[in-house]
Specification:
The chain is of the alpha+beta class. It contains 6 helices and 2 strands.
Length: about 120
């Protein structure tokens, strides 16, 4: 049994040529495969269209007001769509602090309650 090294297999692949007619066919297939947004919207449900347009509007608002972050909500029960912005500086940052003093971690240390410890003791 003969084994090929990675370098040999790459050399063999480099020697393989694609006929020009096949290359044209591949290019035509990839161009036909590239779907436009019109194709998507033609086959999308009403809910998908609503989400698409609401998100597009939020993106445009973000371009107009880059100092804000915009969110999109669609409420089908209340029959409304909401695009809301908030200043980026107002979001704040969240820090996660991990303190390890070497002692074992009990369930009530994580949850702030003794429910799990009580359940485990009762088993």
């Amino acid at each position: 049994m003969t084994s090929l090294t990675r370098r040999q297999s790459l050399g063999l692949l480099a020697g393989v040529t694609i006929p020009p007619t096949a290359a044209v066919g591949i290019a035509a297939a990839s161009a036909a495969k590239a779907a436009s947004i019109d194709d998507y919207l033609a086959s999308a449900s009403a809910s998908e269209k609503a989400w698409y347009h609401a998100n597009a509007l939020a993106e445009i608002m973000g371009e107009m007001h880059p100092e804000h972050t915009f969110i999109t909500r669609i409420d089908h029960d209340g029959y409304f769509a909401l695009i809301a912005g908030k200043p980026r500086k107002g979001w704040g940052k969240v820090a996660k602090v991990h303190i390890d003093d070497g002692s074992p971690l009990f369930a009530d240390d994580v949850t702030g309650t003794t429910a799990f410890s009580d359940w485990e003791t009762g088993r």
